[in-house]
Amino acid sequence: MGPEPVAARADRERKDDEMLDIVIALAALLATGIEAAYVPTEDGGGDYLVRVEPDLVKSANAYQFTSDVPSDARDVRRVRIFVGDTWPPAVERAVLEASRKPRRAAPVAVASARAADAAPVLASAAIAERPWGWLIGSLIALFLSLGANGYLSMLLAQMRQRYLRDIQQGIIKA
Q: For residue 164, is it within any domain?
């Protein structure tokens, strides 16, 4: 095989440059945007913090920014919006400390007057929350995939042995 022609090499480098441009553009799109955090306070409420990058605000086009409050963020007392590339240092410390704390489960309220009526409601709610069907289906798919890969590995080993045997016998020229 001879050296690669100049035109083919230039074409390959142009395609590589195009692919690199696409990857950089995709990374820039994923890196920019809106970042949000919920920081619980000591009195039981919490602050919902939103950081918007300045590039999104500076554009002349009208945009609607949306950030959904997580369902476990109960009693949001204040929404604070920051425009900047990073969180201010004091806010960043609060966000990091809040991320290290375990989240408390929301209290469950039962609207029944008698305790006998509350037991079936709680039991059915606990059963409905467990995705056993998805878990079992995923495990079955996993084991089928492992079995298929093992079978294909055995076929490959047998084919390789036959190939090496045929090469040694001179049936196939290498």
A: yes
- Asked whether the whole model's pTM tops 0.85, one would answer no
Please check whether residues 11 and 54 belong to one and the same domain: no
* Percent of the chain as helix, strand, coil, to the nearest 5: 55, 15, 30
The answer as to whether 46 is a domain residue is yes
More confident residue, 59 or 97: 97
Strand partners, 37: 49
Q: Does 158 have pLDDT greater than 80?
A: yes
Phi, psi at residue 46, to the nearest 5°? -175, 165
Selection from 125, 97, 99, 130 nearest residue 111 by Cα? 125
In this prediction, residues 98-105 reach a mean pLDDT of 70
pLDDT, residue 112, reads 46
Look at residue 76 in the predicted model and tell me its pLDDT. 80
The answer on 93 and 37 residing in a single domain is: yes
Looking at the structure of the chain, the number of domains it has is: 3
Provide the residue range defining the domain that includes 4: 1-29
Task: Count CB atoms within 10 A of the CB of residue 65.
Answer: 11
Contacts for 105 with CB less than 8 Å, ≥ 6 apart = 72
Which helix (H) or strand (E) segment holds residue 28: the answer is helix 6-31
